[in-house]
Amino acid sequence: xxxSVSCKLGYDIEEETVCFFNLQPSQFDRQVLLDEHxxxxxxxxxxxxxxxxxxxxxxxxxxxxxxLLVQYRAEVDLDPLIGDPAGIGQVAPLDLPLDVxxxxxxxxxxxxxxxRAFAFRQFGExxxxxxxxxxxxxxxxxxxxxxxxSSHGTTSAMDTIIDHAGVCRDFAHLGITLCRxxxxxxxxxxxxxxxxxxxxxxxxxxxxxxxRWYLFDxxxxxxxxxxxxxxxxxxxxxxxxxxxxxxxxxxxxEVSITSPGGGALGDLTTQAVSxxxx
Amino acid sequence: xxxSVSCKLGYDIEEETVCFFNLQPSQFDRQVLLDEHxxxxxxxxxxxxxxxxxxxxxxxxxxxxxxLLVQYRAEVDLDPLIGDPAGIGQVAPLDLPLDVxxxxxxxxxxxxxxxRAFAFRQFGExxxxxxxxxxxxxxxxxxxxxxxxSSHGTTSAMDTIIDHAGVCRDFAHLGITLCRxxxxxxxxxxxxxxxxxxxxxxxxxxxxxxxRWYLFDxxxxxxxxxxxxxxxxxxxxxxxxxxxxxxxxxxxxEVSITSPGGGALGDLTTQAVSxxxx
Amino acid sequence: xxxSVSCKLGYDIEEETVCFFNLQPSQFDRQVLLDEHxxxxxxxxxxxxxxxxxxxxxxxxxxxxxxLLVQYRAEVDLDPLIGDPAGIGQVAPLDLPLDVxxxxxxxxxxxxxxxRAFAFRQFGExxxxxxxxxxxxxxxxxxxxxxxxSSHGTTSAMDTIIDHAGVCRDFAHLGITLCRxxxxxxxxxxxxxxxxxxxxxxxxxxxxxxxRWYLFDxxxxxxxxxxxxxxxxxxxxxxxxxxxxxxxxxxxxEVSITSPGGGALGDLTTQAVSxxxx
Amino acid sequence: xxxSVSCKLGYDIEEETVCFFNLQPSQFDRQVLLDEHxxxxxxxxxxxxxxxxxxxxxxxxxxxxxxLLVQYRAEVDLDPLIGDPAGIGQVAPLDLPLDVxxxxxxxxxxxxxxxRAFAFRQFGExxxxxxxxxxxxxxxxxxxxxxxxSSHGTTSAMDTIIDHAGVCRDFAHLGITLCRxxxxxxxxxxxxxxxxxxxxxxxxxxxxxxxRWYLFDxxxxxxxxxxxxxxxxxxxxxxxxxxxxxxxxxxxxEVSITSPGGGALGDLTTQAVSxxxx
Lengths: 278, 278, 278, 278
Hints:
The structure is a homotetramer.
Chain A lengths: L1 E20 L9 E11 L2 E7 L6 E7 L2 E13 L2 E3 L32 H8 L6 H14 L1 E2 L10 H7 L1 E2 L1 H14 L4 E8 L7 E9 L2 E5 L10 E7 L8 E17 L13 E5 L2
Parallel strand pairs in A: 7-8
Antiparallel strand pairs in A: 1-4, 1-5, 1-13, 2-5, 3-4, 6-14, 9-10, 9-12, 10-11, 11-14
C-alpha cells in the first residue's frame, strides 16, 4: 500500500541553534521509500545520517536567529505482515536474539523494574504471546483517559498509572513497561499514522513475539497496518522528532498522511500486524 | 464486649533518649477503659497526657543508656454500633462538621490530590456512602499482596498502587487516599485487633459516613467489631506507637488481646461497624 | 503598627458549588482585628467559624451558577515581638509543648522523613536555634530560583530540591521540611504581606524556637514584621485561601495591604520576629 | 601495565534458569586481553557473544536446579592515556560523533531532563570540559555519604540527591545525570578496580570530552588508571554482571585484581585518564 507523508514545522530561533530532526521514515524490507524531499528556510543542512543500531534517520541543521521552516514529504510503500494472534507466542529468554535483549531493560520513562508484581498480577492469566500484550493494551485503553495536555515531557509510565490519563506517548510507555516487566522485549515507535484524527505525529510500541516485532497501539486511534515508522528506541528519551541545542520556540506544525489507493482499512483488532523482523 | 489488651516492648538505649509512647486505648463513649497498668524498667515516666484534637493518649519517658522495658495492659469494654451498609450514605461537603474537614486533605502518605481521576474512574459507579468505601476495600484487597517486609517507613499510597504489595499500614493508607480523593473524609487508626494472626499492633482506617466514623480494614485480617482503638490521625506520620529522640534499637515485642467472654465473631463483612461519632 | 488589608476574588461558577474561604486574619494577642467587612455577590454565606486547633477563620458559601464575587477588607493592629537571633535556642524534644509536637511530623508536601541526612549534612554545623533556621533560609534563597509558574499544586519539597525553582509556597515547604528533619517544629503560614511586590497572598513559615513561633521567609520578598497572618497548618494541604466542592473557575484577583502610619521597615534581616507564642 | 583479574560467583538455582554474565573485560586498543579462562560447575555454557554497539562481552548459561559456580580469570594489558585536564574541553553538540549522541539522553536511573536548572546553577561557573566534570565529582563526593546498603536496585540519581547517600553505582548515576543535564555525553562503566578496598566489582562513569571518553570516579575509591573495563552503557539498567531468567539466589562472591608489576599509582587527582576513544 502506498502512502504520501509530509510535515511542515516552523520555529522561532532566538540564537544560533543546532537542530537534529528525525522526520524521515526508516527504510527496511516492508517499508520502502520511493521518493522524498526536504526543504529548509532559515537554516542550512549540515549532515544527514542513519543511526547504526536503530536505523533512525536524522538530519542536522544550523539555524541563525529568525524563522526556521522545515518541510518534508515522502512516498512510501508499506507491506505489513498480517498474522493470526493465536499463533504468535512469546520467545523464551534463552532464544532471544542479541540485538533484542536491550529492549528488556527499564528505561527513563518505562520503569519496568518497579512493575513486575503489578504486571504478573494483572496479566499473568492471559496466554503468553500476542494475546497477553493485547490484554495489556485493552487494560491501558480501559483505564487511561486520552486527554491532550494531561502529561508533559517528564511524565513516566509510573505517573500514568497514577494519573489514569495521558497522550499517545504515555499510552506507549505504559505498554512497553508492562511488557518488559513480564520479560517481553518492547520498544517505542514514532510514526505517521493513517486515519489518525486530528492528524499529528503518533507514538505506538512494538513487542518482540514469535521472532518478529509486532505493532500495538493502546490508544486505538490509528490503523495498525497504516503506520509509517519514523524512529524507534527504548522510549521517548531516544526517539524525538526534533532536538535543539540553542534557543528555539515551536510554532506552526502540520502533519499529513494520505493514501492514493485508499490505504489501510484499520479494522484489524482481531489480527496481528508486523513491519519488521529486527 | 470486654477485652484484655497488653504489650511488652524492649529497647536497647545507646544514649539518653526521650521516648513518646501511644499504647493506651483512647477513651470515648463506646470504648470504656475499666482498668490499666503501666510498668517501666530502665526508664522513668515524665508525663502522661491526652492530645486535644485526637484524644490520643501518650506517656513520655526518659531512658538512660541500657535496657528499656515497657509493659502495658488494660481492660476495655467495647460497644461498637452495628448498622446496615445500605442505609449509610455520604455526607455532602456542605454538611460536614468542622472537625471532620481536615480529614479531606492529602497527607504525607496519602496523596489524594494525585488520585482523583483514578478513584472516580474505578469507584464512581458504586453508590456513594458505605458501599463505595467497601468497593474501595475490596479493590485494595484484590489488587494488593499482604507481604511482611515489602514496604518501609517512607512508603506512600502511590508506591503501594505501583508495588501491589504492602502491610496493614499500606492498606490503610491506600484506603484513606482513595476515599479522600472522592471527597470522603478518612483517617488512620491504630489498634489492638482481636483475632489478628499473628498477634501484632494493627492499622485500619475510618471513613466519615452518615454522620459517624465507620471502620474499614482492607486487609480483612481482623474482626471489625473487635478493634480496640489506640491512636487516630491523618496517617501513620501522626500515629505511631513510639517515637524516639536519641538512640534506641527495638528488641523484643509482644502484643496480645483476649476476650474472656469470647469476643467479636468477626464475620461482619455484610455489616457496618462504628465506634465513634467524632 | 496598623494595616489595612483587602482582597477581591472573582469566580465563574458552572454548577451549584460549596466554597470554603480562609481570607480573614487570625486573632491573637499580637494581631488584633479592629474592623472587618465581607461582601458577597452571586453567593450566600452559610456559616462563619474558627477552627479549634489552628484558630484559622473560615466562611462557607453556597454559590449558584453564574458569577461569584468575594470582597473582604479588614483593619489590623500588629505588634510583632522583635528579638536577638543569637539568644533564641532550640527547644529540646523533652520540653516541647504538646500542641507543638504534631509540627515535627512529615506532611503531604514536606517529606522531612526523607531529608534527615541531607539536613544534618548541610546545616549541622550551624548553632542550633534561630541561626540554624536562618542558615536553612539562606541556603534555600541561594539555591532556588523564584519563578512564577514553575511549580503546581502537587509540587512537594522533594521536587523543589530537584527543580531548584518554585514560588513562595515551595520556598516555605522546603524550609518547613528541613527544620522538621532536624527536629525543629515548623508550620506553614499564609499572610497578607506588606511591601510584597507584586501584591498577592504570600506564604511563609514559622519555626518553634525558644518557646515561641518565629517567622521566616526564604524568598526574602516581604518584611517579616509586616505579615498579617491568615491561616496556619502543617503545609499548603491544610492552608488554602479557597476550597471548592462543585465547579468553579478563578477569575479576577486583587490583594492589597497598606499601612496608614508607614508600616514595617522591612530591614530586619539581623533580627528575629515572632507574632505568636502558640 | 599488566593486571590479573578474577572472580568467583556462587548461586543456588531453584529451577532451571537462563543466566547472562558480563564478567569479561572489553577488548579495545588500550585494553588488550592477553589470556582468559572461564570455568563452570553446575551449568552449561550455551553461547558467548559481543554486543555490537557497546562491545560488552557476554556468556549465556543454562543452569539446572542445584549449585552453580562461575569462575573467571584473565590477564589484561592496560595502557591508559594520561592528559592535562586544563586542555580538555567540551565538544559542541554540532561536532559530537553520531554514536555518542545517545549518551546525552536521560535513562532509567539518570533523569537528566529534570536536573538542568540544578546542574547549571551548581556548576555553570566552572570552565566547560574536564574541569567542570571534576567539579561535578567533587560536589558528589562532598555531598554524598558512601554507605553500603543505603540504596537498592531501583534507586535513581534523583533519590541520591535527596538521600545524600549511596554506593558506587549511585555515585556514577549522579555524575552521569549532572553531565547530561549540561549537554555533556556520559555513560556508565563497570570495572575491576585496582586498589579498591574491600575488593569488589566497581562502577564509575565516562564523559565524552575533547574527542574521547574520560574516566571519572566520584567515590575516589579506586585508581583511575587501574580500571579494567567490563561493561559500558546508558546506566546500570544496561550494565549488570549477571541477569537471570528463572530462580537463582546469589551466594559466595570473590573479586580480585592484582598487578605483577606494581600497578597504578592511583595518585592521579590532577590528571585526566582515558581508555577509549569510542
